[in-house]
Every structure is written in structure tokens, then in C-alpha cells.
Amino acid sequence: MGTSTQSRMTVAPSVDGVSAGYAPGFGNDFETEALPGALPQGRNSPQQCPYKLYAEQLSGTPFTAPRGQNERTWCYRIRPSVKHVGRLRRIDMPYWKTAPHVIESNTSLGQYRWDALPHTDHDVTFITGMRTMTCAGDVNTQMGMAAHVYLANESMEDDYFYSADSELLIVPQEGELRFYTELGIIDIQPQSIAIIPRGLVFRVEVTNGPARGFVCENYGQKFDLPNRGPIGANCLANPRDFKTPVAAFEDRDVKSTVTIKWCGQFHSTDINHSPLDVVAWHGNYAPCKYDLRTFSPVGAILFDHPDPSIFTVLTAPSAVEGTANIDFVLFRDRWQVAENTFRPPWYHKNIMSELMGNIHGVYDAKPEGFNPGGISLHNMMLPHGPDKNAFEKATNEPMKPAYLANTMSFMFETRFPQHLTEFAATEAPLQDNYADCWSDLVKHFDGTDSTT
User: Fold this and answer.
1) What mean pLDDT comes out for the span 387-398?
2) N or C: which end of the chain has fewer CB within 10 A?
3) Domain 295-431 classified CATH 3.40.50.150?
4) In the structure, what pLDDT confidence band is assigned to residue 14 with cuts at 50, 70 and 90?
5) What is the CA radius of gyration of the chain?
């Protein structure tokens, strides 16, 4: 496994003897320094920076984006990032695919479900163990997404990566990871997530493995908190529960490799030092993590079942108001109290395409077959809903408050159709009989009304 944090990185100093670790807030303008006085005050680009550092801006939006959407971070680093890229060479990542990616022999219109991808005996890192399941949209127009499963049993020692294509939303399902980024260190484990912005360099250490989880690769506008509307200022994902790392840097002269993903191609370059050399930074374009157990779900407290959009944690908007490029939706443990109501998700067809993953436990609409680590896909305008056992239970259960325990599933939902990769269609553990879960639903109609 990778070398420990303390031996490789200098971290922001503690406050009153307590390690700062993370700063709370979503989309805040942060400032942090790993050495005292490293952050210039009152200006961004002084003639000479403290500690003889280089000033460099990392922009996540066009310079002219509206003020509330403009994102950038000023970095004060040992070397400018032009020193972190040498001669580039194309390399192959055969299992990591990018939209547009349509294989005519694959039938993406279908109700699909996969068991958890088994761990491999081969050495794989967070990057080399990436397995793309679906692709949607077009990376060249910065719209759409890809859904991946990662398998990792090796740390990235002196190998670094960044994606010019996408923001990465990482959802661990098994094992623990540590992300060493240009702007600080993030530790995540199951029931938490991390967001790595487009263009940010990082490496990943497996701190407890083997590790497995899900990744949503967002080609479009970055994830934001959804507008709550009548819900008001609180509940769902509260901004204070997102944590952004404090400054940390590596000053190491060692042979290193940087891999770049650009328009679906992978390029590698060799350098003679670590690129994680940002000593201080300020701005609002930064990685963060979030504990999914702090998500405060809301729902009906009298009757009927709200749309599942009520469980949206994050949304990546599109140019069409109210139509997301991606929604990240969470189904966690919660009380159900609606009376005279079919409480599980109802049967429906949807303009959005839904990929679900099970982090742990049992999903109420599919009590059998949708196992931890598993994935299901219901593409746009394809009907889906509870299986027979879930229907019968929900139709006949006593109408008293019930606590859904031991459950955490999520959904990557997009306005684009999600196309299967060759790996998803032929190599991943596809449940061939999944569509049969509705085959034993029976007709109850006989012309009489038993509810009166």
C-alpha cells in the first residue's frame, strides 16, 4: 500500500493543537496554507510570492461566467503546472470508455441488472481498475456522463492522474480510499462520497482493501446542490456537511508519471518530481467529500409517494431549466408513515435514464436479487417498478409507521440514453433473468371494487 501521509505530505498546521483536516461548506470561497504566510494577502499575483512560490490560477468555468457560477482557485506552488507535463504518449485504457460510445451489437434498451463485479487477482489501482458500464451524451460537447465501477487493490505510488473531460463523483461500496490531490487530502469509505473537479491532479491510496465502488463521470456543468423550492433552507444535503480539505503538498524529487484523460483518449507523461506541490490556495474550485448519513430525507407525512427527485443529493444542470444533465439521488434508511398509500416506488416510465447502485442492505422495491455492489439500468421510456413480492407486501402491509433500516442505494439519472459498453454486455456479471422479476405479476381485476 501507499506510504503514509505524514512521511510524504506537509499538511496545513493545526489550530490550537487540533488538526484542521477539513473546512465545512459547499461552494464556499476557502483559503488555506500548509506553511505560515504562504498565502498572499490583498492580491492574487504579487511580483514575488512568499517562499519563492509560483502563482497559478485553476479555472473551472469561463472567466465571464456569472458571479454566482464563476469558479476558480489561486494556487501557490513549488513549480508551475507546465513543469508537470512533458512529452505526451498515447496509452490504452481498454476498460475505460467515453461517450459517444454506441456498439450496434449491444441492445441498450432493456431492463438490466448486474451482480457486484468480483475482485480481481491482478494488481489494479483506482485508475487501471476502472470498468465502464454505460456512456451517455457526448464528451466533445461537454454534455452527458459515464457510469463506472472501480476495483482497486494497489495504491498509486508515484503515478498521478487528472481528467480534462470530467468531474468525478466517487461512491465507495467496499474498502477505503485516500485521495491525495493538489489541494489537500480526502479520506472516504462506504456511505460517503468524494467529488474531484475536472483538471485537478490526484493519486489514490488504498487504505483498506480491496476496494470497490461506483464513479459518475460528469462531462457537463459541475454538480451543485438542488434548489429546494418550498422545502426551504434546510434538509436534504445541507451545505455545512460537505468538507473541503486544507492545503497539503509534496516536495519530492522522484520519477513520476502523470496520466491525462482528454476527449476519451489517455496520454501519459514522465516527470522527475511530484505534481502535488500546492503550498497554499484560495478559491471555490476544490475537491470535497460528504457523509451520506447526514442526508436528511423529506417525504409525505399523510398520503401518497413524492417523486424520487425529492431524494436528490446533487444535480448537474443542463441548459434546459429543470432538466438535469445528471442527478445523484440517494435512497437511505428512513421512516415511512403515509396512510392508505403504496409506499415503495411506483411503476413508471420516465424521460430520464436511471442507473442504480446498491451500497449496502436491501432496496425496498427489489428485496431479492439487487445485492450490495450490484447495478441496475432502466433506460428512458422503459417501464419498471417493484417485483411481485414487493408489490404484494406493500399492498397488504398494515398502515402504521415503518422504519426502513439497513438500506442505502443511489441513482445516477440523466436526460440522455445510457448505452452499454462491451464490458457491461459481455463480461460483467449480468443477471440474464432480471426482466423475469415481473413475469409473475397477475391480473387482479375482475370488474368489482374490493376497496369500497
Assistant:
1) 90
2) C
3) no
4) low
5) 23
- DSSP calls for 304-354: S---GGGGEEEEEE-SSTT-EEEEEEEEEEEEE--SSS--SPPPB--SSEE
In 3D space, the residue among 3, 5, 8 whose CA is nearest the CA of residue 274 turns out to be 8
Yes or no: say if 133 and 147 are a contact pair by the CB < 8 Å rule. Answer: yes
DSSP string, 81-113: GGGG--S-EEE--TT---SS---TTS--SSEEE
Q: Which residue has the cell 452527458?
A: 144
Does residue 384 have an active-site annotation? no
Q: Which of 136, 243, 230, 142 is nearest to 187 (CA)?
A: 243
3-class secondary structure, 151: strand
Catalytic residue among 119, 267, 305, 360: 305
Tell me the three cell numbers of residue 392.
404484494
DSSP state of 117: P
CA distances for 51 relative to 48, 71, 77, 103, 297, angstroms: 9, 26, 9, 53, 47
pLDDT tens by residue, 229-243:
999 999 999 999 999
Cα–Cα distance list, 362 to 179, 185, 197, 423 (Å):
29, 32, 32, 26
Is the pLDDT reported for residue 5 higher than 60? Answer: no
210 prior amide bond cis, ω within 30: yes
Nearest alpha carbon to residue 215 among 145, 154, 142: 145
Query: Which residues lie below 8 Å from residue 230, measured CB to CB, with a gap of 6+?
Result: none
- % of the chain with per-residue pLDDT over 90: 82
Ordered DSSP codes for 205-229 = EEEEEEEEEEEEEE-SSPPBPPP-G
Predicted confidence band of residue 271 (pLDDT cuts 50, 70, 90): very high
pLDDT at 108: 86
Which residue carries 444533465 as its cell? Answer: 325
CB-CB contact of 210 with 174 (8 Å): yes
Find out whether 418 and 379 touch, Cβ atoms under 8 Å.
Answer: yes
- Dist. CA 377–CA 313, nearest whole Å: 19
Residue-averaged pLDDT of the chain = 93
Give the strand pairing for 111-114 and 375-378: antiparallel
HSE toward the beta carbon, residue 155, CA cutoff 13 A = 17
Domain locations along the chain: 295-431
Torsion-angle region of 155 (φ positive above 0: left; ψ -120 to 50: alpha; else: beta): beta
